[in-house]
Structures are given as structure tokens and as C-alpha cells.
Amino acid sequence: MAFAKHTLTIILIFAFLLLLTQCSKATSGDETPSPAPTTEEEEEGSSPTPAPAEEEEEEEDDDDDEDEDEEESAPTPTPTPKPTQSSLGPAADSPLSMSELLELSLPEIGIQKVVTGPLSDGAKVSNKQLEGIEHKIVEFKTTLEKRGAGPESDAMKKCLSQCQDNLDDAIDGVKKGIESINKQDLSKANIDISGVATDIETCNDCFIELDGEDKEVNAFNDWIKGVTKECLMNLKQK
């Protein structure tokens, strides 16, 4: 029995060694080196194909050479000579003083003076009418001042005082209208003359609200309306 165990042990050892030997042979077979490349393969591998980046660089170098050739062939522009003081004339030699500038006439310094023609016949008639209107307003203002000093009611005196302010505004409007006509600013003259009629009408409205109507003030208001209307019509005539 002991001999059988000893024999079995020896068989297992030999089997194990045999297995190791086969494993080592299999490993050495896998690591067999590949055959060395032939000379033809080495020559083909030694000539690498040019990379795309290198081709682009070569094309850019060619373009740069062409640009340089074009720049060299292009003619260089000749500089324009700057004007000297002698070419600018005598005015450029010495600047004018302030007094000399003031002595120059307007056309000589490049400013054209606005020349207005004579007033039309209609504008002249309007001016005469406005002068007459101003004279009448001053007279009527004196009349209302006398009434204000008399035995009038407080409400009546209030209207008379307001009319004094309205008449002052109307006188200013007449003067502005004459000035606008003389400047031939007919659009502004129309506004000024219309404003005169409005000032007198405001005075009349105060009496209408107070006592229905004041005959003296109402008559003067009607006269102003008529004469200012004629004045505006005359402005339209040549």
C-alpha cells in the first residue's frame, strides 16, 4: 500500500513537469520575431509623402513672390507739392488785423447782404392806416381814463382799468406791425395787426359781460375791426 502511494506521487510529479515543458514551448512560439523588411520595402518607407500643410506653405510662398513682383512693377506715386505762401497770393503773406477785417465790405469777406426792395403801394397805405389807428387808440385811452375818475360803480371801474391794459397792448401791436411792414415781413405784420383787433375786442367783452354793452366801447371796437381788416387787405396788394 505504501509502495502504491509512492508510485502515484512520482507519476504526478512527472505529469506536472511535462505540463510546464509544453507551456514554455508554447510561449516561445508566440514570441517568434517577424521577418526583417526587405531593402525594397525600406526604400519605399524612406520616402514619406509631403504633408498638406507643407504644400499650403509652398503655395503661400509662391503667392508672396507674385505680390512682391507686382509691387515692384507698380509705379510709385509722385507726391503733390504743398502750396507755398507765394502761390497763395499776397493775402497769405500776412494775416489781416481785426481793424482791417472790419473795414472790408460784406461781399469781400463772402457775406452777401440781404437787399430789400422798396415797399409796395399797399404796404405804404397799411403803414398810414396803422399810424391813424395808434392815434385813435391814444385818444380813446384818454376818454376811458376820464370815465374811470368819475362816479362809476366798482365793477365798471374794473372794466375801465382792464381796458387801459388792453389799449396799451394794442398800441404796442401797432408799432410792431409798422416795424414788420418796413422789414417786409408780411406774415408777422398780419399777426401784429390781428392782435390789435383782439386787444380792443377783449376790452369790449368785459363791458358786455358786465352790463350787456357799452355803446362808446362797442362803437370803437367796430371801428377797429373795420380798419384793421382794410389794413390786412392792403398788405396783399402790390
Concise summary:
This protein is mostly helical.
Question: How would you summarize the topology of this molecule?
Answer:
Layout: H1 2-30, H2 39-46, H3 52-73, H4 85-88, H5 98-103, H6 121-149, H7 154-182, H8 186-211, H9 215-235
Assess the beta-strand content as a share of residues: under 5%
By secondary-structure content and strand pairing, the structural class works out as mainly alpha
SSE string: HHHHHHHHH
DSSP summary: helix tally: 9
**What is the CATH level 1 assignment of the domain at 121-233?**
Mainly Alpha
Strand count: 0
CATH architectural type of the domain at 121-233: Up-down Bundle
- In whole angstroms, how far apart are the ends? 163 Å
Keywords: Signal
Biased composition (Acidic residues): 53-73
GO molecular function, one term: enzyme inhibitor activity
Signal peptide: 1-26
Kindly describe this structure:
- This protein has a domain at 121-233: Butyryl-CoA Dehydrogenase, subunit A, domain 3, CATH 1.20.140.40.
- The chain is rod-shaped, with a radius of gyration of 59 Å.
- Helix content is 73%, strand content 0%.
- The chain starts with a helix and ends with a helix.
- The chain is built from nine helices and no strands.
- The longest helix has 29 residues, at 2-30.
- By secondary structure, it is mostly helical.
- This is Pectinesterase inhibitor domain-containing protein.
- Residues 1-26 form the signal peptide.
- InterPro entries: Invertase/methylesterase_inhib, Pectinesterase_inhib_dom.
- GO terms for molecular function: enzyme inhibitor activity.
- It comes from Tagetes erecta (African marigold).
